[in-house]
Amino acid sequence: MASLVVQTSFIGDVVLTTPLIATLAARGPVDVVATRVGASVLVGNPHVRHLIIYDKRRADRGPSGLFRIASAVRTSDRDAAAYLAQGSNRSAFLARIAGYRERVGFDTSAGRWLYTKRIPFARQHHHAERLLRLALGPDAEVLRSALRPRVYPSDADRDAVDQLLGTVPNEGRSFIALAPGSVWATKRWPYYAQLAAALQATHRSIVVGSRDDAPLAAEIVRATGGDAIDATGRLTLLGSAELIGRCRAIVTNDSAPLHLASAMNTPTIAIFGPTVPAFGFGPLADASVTAEHLSLRCRPCHPHGPMICPLGHWRCMRDLSLETVLARIKSLA
Q1: In a structure prediction context, what are the per-residue pLDDT tens digits for the chain, which is 333 residues long?
Q2: CATH number, domain containing residue 286
Q3: Count of structural domains within the chain
Q4: Cβ partners under 8 Å of residue 176, min gap 6
């Protein structure tokens, strides 16, 4: 049976959708609709037959773009099913006009009125499990081992990482990835530079992230006297995953690198401030711990993390000490 998966959310959501895609691929071919950046982490995925880029905010914006994408995924297979991993009205309408008679999504989604099957959105589960249950149903037994996502860096990605690391002298120190960035300002732990300096005797820090994270990386490089490696903006997303996979561990905010680390099974220290792991986006690597300010009553304050602390103190991150994170690293790396 053919399936369509519509997932046009953030990068991390796309990564967490890969267990669902793999499960559906065991039943038949799977096509995936994703944004341009989301699609970049699905390149080379052996469980995806066709990858359709939906540039919903630019080239495919508006009704004409919606109908263009619907035409690209249209089916005449009466048994084909669409799985709405992203729950907007637009995604649901896309599946409807593309001819998918069965449309499966969460019972809390905006587009649920267009679904033929609604799966309970179980807030107590990890989001990878919630997504997987779109295919398995709400009562199926789900093993943790089935939840770990997968991404597939290419030979070119591996070559790019080889080239980046080839310029670094081999001094016997293990690499540790640092991911100081986030789209949401309050999710950025402020002590990464101090952390890199504290780790310098035993680990060589590699800063991962996009070009937007370059100022944060520069601060880390300065704090280590040029010892830390700035990889921000130098690799594709899958190249960053490959690099993370070669590191002894990663320290990351609640952001996309956390989920790339889960996909590469890299030991993970995940820092949570305005958000909490209970939202369903914690690490899934076999070896993983979290660092968070458990005693603050104002946490969590936002489903994603606001740009500015609503109370003005930002204690969820400011009071999360360097020593706390160092202890978490010591427990894993």
Answers
A1: 899 999 999 999 999 999 999 999 999 999 999 999 999 999 999 999 999 999 888 877 888 889 999 999 999 888 999 999 999 999 999 999 999 999 999 999 999 999 999 999 999 999 999 999 999 999 999 988 899 999 999 999 999 999 999 888 778 899 999 999 999 999 999 999 999 999 999 999 999 999 999 999 999 999 999 999 999 999 999 999 999 999 999 999 999 999 999 999 999 999 999 999 999 999 999 999 999 999 999 999 998 899 999 999 999 999 999 999 999 999 986
A2: 3.40.50.2000
A3: 2
A4: 199, 203, 204, 205, 206, 247, 248, 249, 250, 251, 329, 333
Amino acid (1-letter code) at residue 147 = L
Range of the domain at 205: 155-332
Global model pTM greater than 0.90: yes
Residue 174 neighbours by CB distance under 10 Å: 13
| 175: enclosing H helix or E strand | strand 174-179
DSSP 224-274: TTT-SEE-TTSS-HHHHHHHHHTSSEEEEESSHHHHHHHHHT--EEEEESS
| Residue where a domain stops, chosen among 96, 125, 146 | 146
Spatial CB neighbours of 288, under 8 Å, sequence gap ≥ 6: 262, 267, 268, 269, 270, 282, 332
Do 142 and 172 reside in the same domain of the chain?
no
